Amino acid sequence: MTQPRRSPRGPDRKRDPERTRERLLEAALVEFGEHGYAGARISAIARRAGVNQQLISYYFDGKEGLFKALQSRWRDTSAQANDPGRGLADVVAEFLRINADNRPWARMLIWGGLADSTPDDEPFFLGMVDDLRRRQEAGEISADLDPAHLMLLLFGAVLAPTVVPHVARQFTGLDPESDEFRETYAAQLRLVIARLGEPG
User: Fold this and answer.
1) Which residues of the chain does CATH 1.10.10.60 include?
2) pLDDT tens track of the chain, all 200 residues?
3) Which of 75, 102, 105, 164 is most buried, taking the most CB atoms under 10 A from its CB?
4) Which CATH number applies to 82-195?
5) What is the CATH number of domain 11-65?
């Protein structure tokens, strides 16, 4: 049963609410990224943020609400990157950049897969498949490719340098966090994506 939300007391009452929410979200992203949803602790998130633990319940209604707020933030970031006016190669390159610059997001996602215990976000992922289907109908992707499986392939390709950097390093001889790797890998992904529009 959800506990009633209590107003913060003392010094916490004087804090800027938006700044406090932002600090909690940043701390939660790191904590979820390091320990997964199941392993993350509210007390650790509050400690990282430097705020009273009760503020998590006050602002987010608990751990699940905090996690869902992060999911919502990722959906907003994703929507900006996945501009329908951009070509698919540009969209994939942008997601590659976002993942490289925001490693905790990728780690949080991977923890969800390992533990299979995070709150569901199926509509978001189905929307990504629908976007590929629209691109296919517009002729950007060959008709003989299945959008769901193609989305999985592209998703994995974008995550790979962040999730298995040691493998990326061994395959390419480049540091996956270097500009050289990012530029080379993005260029190769562009070449692969250009082939997706060719007839099978």
Assistant:
1) 11-65
2) 444 445 455 554 445 888 999 999 999 999 998 888 888 999 999 999 999 999 999 999 999 999 999 988 888 888 888 888 889 999 999 999 888 888 888 888 888 777 765 556 677 888 889 999 999 999 999 999 999 999 999 999 999 998 899 999 999 999 999 999 999 999 999 999 999 987 65
3) 105
4) 1.10.357.10
5) 1.10.10.60
CATH code 1.10.357.10 region(s) in the chain: 82-195
Distance CA 94, CA 189 (A): 11
Give the angle 71-72-76 at the CA atoms, nearest 5°: 115
What 8-state DSSP symbol labels residue 140?
S
Give the global pTM. Answer: 0.76
